[in-house]
Amino acid sequence: MSRRRNKPGFIQVFESDLQEIGASCEHPANAYLVWIALCRLENRARSEREDHAVTVPIRFIADAAGLKYRATTYALNHLEEIGLVRVYRQYSNPKNRQPDAPSTYELHGALRDYEQV
What we know:
Layout: H1 15-24, H2 29-45, E1 53-56, H3 58-65, H4 69-81, E2 85-90, E3 101-107, H5 110-116
Antiparallel strand pairs: 1-3, 2-3
Helix pairs in contact: 2-3, 2-4, 3-4
């Protein structure tokens, strides 16, 4: 029986992004977890996309961050408010303002500045 081994690897998490989260949030722990989860998910999706975006349901982000749905939603809203994430919400019915399909999360922050150098 073969055991699953973790592949070595890394993701880039910029200190300036973490500082921005810490400075703008009263309780930054959940926002840190969601930001790192989004960075991990984006890194995995990079082979399929050229941009820094990932399209997943909030539940998937919550599971990756180890948080509940509501805590993840609050953290995503905070990250969007401070400009680290741009959310493209998907609605199958425009009158129903609850996203009912996976949204696309486009990551911003120090990553953009780093790539322009």
